[in-house]
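User: Could you go from structure to sequence for me? I need the amino acid at each position, not a summary. Structure tokens:
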């Protein structure tokens, strides 16, 4: 191995977070630390205020959250809210966004499936509802082609995932189990060494030789490719119709009950943003990159954003069946006790919006209201 066991343990220890599965702590995408960038979009001067003065929206500075990035950047969500102002906060990890939702610091959030499941089950179904979809795909296994030439070569290698129990970690552990290989889910030790590494430091770890590859979301995957990595597997190829939820929309149940008109307006803005992204892909990519630059201080170069953008599918459907499958994968990997997800979805507001626009409604895979 290129890295000593001590270096590997140090990398894992620095980047591993506990998981909120029973006695474990919840995990999401990105790093452990959150970053709240409070921003307020100006409400439409002649717009009619809805039932709330403002709505607080949370999301990640991440391409898989393109709907929120572009919808806020282009004012498409604000337009639907009229005189109700949009306030935004960005996060680098799912747990901090769930905490913000529970505390009332945000009302609606774009977030990955694992933290949404964790937040719902930990609150015994009282904290949130998934109300819409946003993105599918954008996750790849990238390896050092000098060390790994086939999927079977992964045995004995050091492969990074973003966090213990996050969406990509669960997917990789499930893939390993399907291969018939053994890995201790908590330590990551086994036939493959799963190294939990913050997406921010994974490219450096790859460059130094501390890891042999990574199962990661975009744009980290394309950053590794820019460092000489090779895409060995696109996770989309493992799913029916090559679609699985990577980002969905959640709302505080309290806010949904008190301000259904605001929730509906945000969803209408999301649907119209998604339509604009799909019909104007190049402009939308530029808009998303401009938003990333504003939030992080640095835009993504073309050799990273171009392939990353192409691998993400923007949609309104939350792909509910894939959420249940991801929960089942977490159970199979030993990270989660079988959860009761019945009631996690409330897609009535989204279907109302879709119907008003002449679009087909979406289903909840039997996980709607109890």
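Assistant: Here is the amino acid at each position, in order:
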């Amino acid at each position: 191995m290129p890295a000593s066991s001590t270096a590997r343990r140090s990398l894992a220890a620095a980047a591993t977070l506990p998981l909120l599965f029973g006695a474990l702590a919840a995990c999401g995408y990105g790093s452990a630390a959150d970053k709240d960038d409070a921003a307020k979009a100006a409400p439409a001067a002649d717009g009619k205020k809805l039932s709330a003065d403002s709505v607080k929206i949370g999301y990640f500075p991440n391409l898989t959250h393109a709907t929120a990035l572009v919808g806020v950047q282009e004012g498409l969500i604000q337009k639907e809210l009229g005189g109700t102002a949009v306030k935004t906060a960005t996060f680098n990890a799912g747990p901090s966004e769930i905490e913000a939702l529970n505390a009332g610091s945000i009302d609606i959030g774009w977030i990955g499936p694992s933290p949404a499941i964790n937040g719902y089950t930990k609150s015994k179904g009282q904290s949130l509802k998934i109300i819409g979809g946003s993105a599918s795909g954008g996750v790849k296994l990238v390896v050092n082609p000098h060390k790994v030439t086939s999927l079977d070569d992964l045995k004995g290698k050091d492969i990074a995932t973003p966090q213990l129990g996050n969406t990509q970690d669960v997917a990789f552990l499930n893939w390993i189990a399907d291969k018939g290989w053994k890995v201790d889910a908590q330590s990551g030790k086994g036939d493959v060494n799963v190294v939990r590494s913050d997406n921010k430091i994974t490219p450096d770890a790859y460059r130094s030789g501390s890891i042999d590859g990574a199962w990661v979301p975009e744009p980290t995957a394309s950053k590794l490719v820019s460092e000489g990595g090779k895409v060995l597997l696109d996770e989309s190829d493992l799913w029916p119709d090559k679609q699985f939820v990577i980002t969905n929309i959640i709302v505080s149940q309290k806010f949904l009950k008190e301000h259904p008109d605001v929730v509906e307006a945000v969803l209408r803005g999301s649907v119209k943003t998604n339509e604009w992204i799909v019909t104007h892909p190049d402009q939308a990519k530029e808009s998303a990159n401009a938003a990333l630059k504003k939030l992080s201080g640095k835009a993504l170069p073309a050799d990273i954003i171009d392939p990353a953008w192409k691998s993400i599918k923007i949609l309104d459907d939350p792909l509910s069946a894939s959420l249940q499958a991801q929960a089942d994968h977490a159970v199979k990997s030993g990270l989660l006790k079988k959860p009761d997800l019945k009631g996690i979805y409330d897609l009535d507001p989204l279907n109302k919006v879709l119907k008003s626009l002449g679009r087909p409604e979406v289903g909840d895979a039997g996980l709607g209201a109890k």
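One structural detail worth keeping in mind: The chain has a mean pLDDT of 88.
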